[in-house]
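Honest question from a wet-lab person: if I give you the sequences of every part of a complex, can you actually get the arrangement of the whole thing, not just the pieces? Trying it with mine:
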Amino acid sequence: MHMLRHSSFLTHPPTSYKNVVMFPPVIMRIDETLAELVAFDTSSDNPTLPLATHIAMWAADLGFDVQRYGDCFEALIIRTQPALKAKRYIGLCGHLDTVPATDGWDTDPLMLTEAMVDGETRYYGLGAQDMKGPVACMMHALEKNQTVPAALALTYNEETDFGGARLLAANAMDILAPMTLIIGEPTQGRIGYAHASYTEWQLTITGKGGHSSDPSNSCNAMYGMACVLQQVKALSERLMQTPYDGFPGAGSMNPGVVRGGDANNRICQSVTMTGDLRLAPGYEPDDTLEELQTGAQRTLQEAGSACSIEVSTVCSYPSFFTSPSHPLIAYLSTITGKEATTLPFSTDAAIFNGEADLPALVCGPGSLDVCHQSNEYITKAGLQRGTAWYTSLLASGVGCMDTSGRL
Ligand SMILES: [Zn+2]
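Yes, you can. This is the full assembly:
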């Protein structure tokens, strides 16, 4: 994590963007566009409708086709006119929501603030990096490529439950089907082709309660949980030690929260543990959870425990995988100068690729290191690089095919 040098703010007074004029008739500077996006509070649970409306008006003014989905939480698909007749083309993709602002901001999180720090120009603001900065880059790239088939898909609730991507996958597949999606999460230009699935699970041990003075006639669920915890640890270690190309291992399993018992003089009847499970593409969470259930049951029996166990899925998001030999990866590598990689975090690709089977890659400017924390920023160089990458990609025509099937 990169800490802010406060002295830099003193020697380089921040620039305020509060008075940015909305919708000027000329192409705006990228930082002005970003300042507008950041000014809308779209942190989790806040509707994206105002920001989506703002972007929809920008797109309509430029003559783009605009499709709007949802109500107070709104997702958008914006297409150039040539895209309406194209058989295949690139769809740039970002999310409009941000995580909530945490304590510790040195500036107003909703007012983009420019400062020179460590010899680089940075723009501080909530979502500046994740991912309103990349969205601003995409808007500028689309604006510069109005005569080629191209699209911009914008989702909401990516940070919580992928609600926007789910809504688009359920209602807009006819529009999304021709697209190869480039999702602009921060990868520093590396081309993400895969990430793990993510599952939250719950495990409940049920024993028999009673007066603490007579353990012989009861079954303390806490002892049962002690056995089962070892089972979770062993399973996680085995997953982590299983080699899997491009990933640190086949997966990991983390016991996150354990709750149980209600009084010191009562034998604990029930203990619940929740945790997460991350699995590389090709591994099924249900298989691992079934293995946990079966193994834990056996461990309890071997320990002479009469406790019962139940494992269930709380929520689950699929993995994402596009072949590392996909031709677009090689092309993107020549643009960004970076290599292909797997990703340590989930993205909307879980829904668009993992569920809806659309081809997708993840590639954006900037670093994950500054996201989801106070004083989030994107550098001026990052904004310029991102805009240049997306602009070149769209202008190249790579991934485009007209209705006759010609590339
Ligand atoms: Zn993001």
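Two things worth pointing out. The longest strand covers residues 197-206. Confidence is low (pLDDT under 50) at residues 1-14.
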